[in-house]
Amino acid sequence: MVIFHCFESELDNSRLKNGTKLQKKIQSRKFYSNNIQKTSIFLQTGMRRILRYGFFFVILRKFSQATDLSMKNTDSDDLNLSTDMVDTASTESPKKHKRRHTPFLLLLNILMTGTAGWKDLRRSRLTPEQTAAGCFYPLIALASACRFADWFYLPEFNLSETLVSAVSVFVSFFFSYFAIQVVCRWLFPTAVKSKTETAYFKLMVQYALSSLALFLIPAEVLPILETITVFLPIWTAFIITKGIRFMVIPNQFLNRCMVTIVVTVIVTPYLLMWLCDKIL
């Protein structure tokens, strides 16, 4: 009997050991299968994003090539302002000319056509003050007011914090306009520093900042679109590269000036907003 009981106890121990080993194998297989599934899902989503953004950049490249080709075919000399103004004044009535060259419509034209929009801006007789009053200030005010859209989404809406956040948006864009001019004047080569004092440079900075404010509005009103609108400043950089050609900068300084304008225009407002959020 004692031998039988010992044999049964050893058999039970061996069964327990085999059971624990089997459970460990099952758990390890589940762990590896879960890891494989997670890795495959991660790779699938990564490839989808790469294909999506790659398709976007291909379209952007093709569109820029098409606009450049159309501008080369339509005009051999885009920089002659006097002939452009004479042609516009002779072929268009004053009312039609005024409607076409309103600041906000020019912004939409620049965003949609690139080089052709900047050319229409050169043809127009708008001053930086007119553009600021008709496009720049209203858009940054609207972008700051859209911060109050949190009232529809947040269960605990704080009016004072939202008001401070809205004011920080307006102040950031407002002071960015002047800060960009100072930084560009400091970073531009000595031979082209005077270009930062021209009316066209001020207009270009205003329209670039206005496009950023316009892209900020849907992200504030519909937070679900924030993952998409975060890439829209790329389009602002694109329109700047199309508009800098009308500043008539020598080729040896063109790339340096273009990178300076793109970086300062995109970085300055978001940097000031971040500082305002930290301070206030």
Overview of the molecule:
The protein has 280 residues and is an all-alpha fold. It folds into two domains: 29-74; 79-279, no CATH class. It contains eleven helices and no strands. The longest helix is centred in the N-terminal third of the chain and has 73 residues, at 2-74. Mean pLDDT is 77; it is low at 53-58 and 66-98.
Descriptive key words:
11 helices; 80% helix; globular
Cα(first) to Cα(last) distance is 85 Å
* Element pattern in H and E: HHHHHHHHHHH
What share of the residues does DSSP label as strand, in percent?
under 5%
Q: List how many beta strands DSSP finds.
A: 0
Number of domains: 2
Shape: globular
The secondary-structure class comes to mainly alpha
List the helices and strands and how they pair.
Blueprint: H1 2-74, H2 81-91, H3 94-100, H4 103-113, H5 115-123, H6 128-145, H7 159-187, H8 199-221, H9 226-229, H10 233-243, H11 251-279
Helix pairs in contact: 4-5, 6-7, 6-8, 7-8, 7-11, 8-10, 8-11, 10-11
